[in-house]
């Protein structure tokens, strides 16, 4: 994984989480720097040790101890049983260690059919939720499946975000969801999205983090995949969030470029949430 690139991407997302407004502004609205957000960015930009440590555990480079038992996570496939359950327990334990309220959300039969959820409750508008997600499972279904980038990097990113956002106060609730079953039909996110719709939850923004360690033809680039504005209800807000991230990167002087892609990728967990409005 290109560690510096992933760290920059995560710090950019961290700042975005901190500045998502109560009401989404026009895409051209200027972003005013905030001292508290700048301090948060500086705090989180100190290095990649936390990212590396999480990734080593989640990919089986080092063993992981949960419930007094030491195991190696050699796969995180949704139907792998003990390995994926160990990964879920590891993530749950790390969230708790950061002081984030953590829980499991079961979405089907089988030991590994669970989402892991962490929340930092909002102080002003707790019913309004900024959801940050990544999928914990990987492929293939048999044999070793470390999934370092897809999506160990995304899960390490979420843990990094949770650690640095914990202990701070935000107007709205921040919810971190490590989805299960993405590789076998986005089962965990489909369940969570439908549950949120049925409960009438007010989710104001979704940031789905997938394969952020990938480095293709360009360097220091964070790809943002969204719908073309005007093509569906809420697609204009997609553009606002993408532009807000661009403004965050510029305002807080991050050495990274946002690549805005209006390609409406449909095979990730964000599609589950789109489908439920």
List the helices and strands and how they pair.
Blueprint: H1 3-19, H2 35-44, H3 49-58, E1 64-66, E2 69-71, H4 82-97, E3 101-106, E4 114-120, E5 125-135, H5 148-165, E6 172-179, H6 187-199, E7 202-208, E8 221-225, H7 235-251, E9 257-261, H8 269-275
Parallel strand pairs: 5-6, 5-7, 8-9
Antiparallel strand pairs: 1-2, 3-4, 4-6
Helix pairs in contact: 1-2, 1-5, 1-7, 3-5, 6-8
User: How much is the average pLDDT?
Assistant: 88
Distance between the termini: 33 Å
Radius of gyration: 18 Å
User: How many β strands by DSSP?
Assistant: 9
Q: Work out the strand percent.
A: 15-25%
> In the CATH hierarchy, what is the superfamily?
Zn peptidases
Could you say which overall geometry the principal axes of the C-alpha atoms support? globular
CATH topology: Aminopeptidase
What's the number of structural domains? 1
Helical content class:
25-40%
Main sheet attributes: strand count, strand direction, barrel closure: 5 strands, mixed
Total helical segments: 8
Structural class: alpha/beta
CATH architecture descriptor text: 3-Layer(aba) Sandwich
CATH class descriptor: Alpha Beta
Q: Secondary-structure element order, as H and E?
A: HHHEEHEEEHEHEEHEH
Largest sheet: spatial strand order: 3-4-6-5-7
Low-confidence stretches: none
């Amino acid at each position: 994984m290109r560690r510096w690139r992933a760290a920059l991407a995560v710090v950019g997302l961290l700042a975005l989480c901190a500045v998502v407004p109560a009401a989404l502004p026009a895409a051209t609205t200027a972003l005013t720097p905030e001292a508290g957000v700048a301090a948060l960015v500086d705090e989180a930009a100190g290095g990649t040790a936390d990212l590396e440590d999480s990734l080593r555990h989640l990919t089986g480079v080092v063993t992981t101890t949960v419930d007094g038992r030491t195991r190696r996570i050699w796969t995180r496939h949704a139907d792998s049983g003990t390995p994926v359950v160990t990964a879920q327990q590891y993530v749950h334990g790390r969230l708790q260690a950061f002081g984030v309220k953590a829980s499991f959300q079961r979405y089907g039969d089988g030991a590994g059919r669970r989402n892991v959820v962490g929340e930092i409750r909002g102080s002003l508008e707790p019913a309004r939720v900024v959801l940050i997600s990544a999928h914990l499972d990987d492929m293939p279904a048999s044999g070793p499946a470390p999934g370092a980038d897809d999506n160990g990097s995304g899960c390490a990113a979420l843990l990094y975000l949770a650690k640095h956002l914990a202990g701070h106060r935000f107007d709205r609730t921040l919810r971190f969801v490590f989805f299960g079953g993405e590789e076998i039909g986005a089962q965990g996110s489909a369940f969570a999205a439908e549950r949120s719709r049925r409960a009438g939850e007010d989710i104001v923004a979704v940031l789905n983090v997938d394969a952020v360690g990938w480095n293709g033809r360009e360097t220091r680039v964070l790809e943002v995949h969204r719908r073309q504005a005007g093509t569906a209800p809420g697609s204009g807000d997609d553009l606002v969030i993408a532009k807000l991230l661009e403004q965050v990167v510029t305002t807080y002087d991050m050495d990274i470029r946002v690549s805005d892609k209006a390609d409406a990728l449909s095979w990730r967990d964000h599609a589950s949430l789109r489908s439920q409005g």
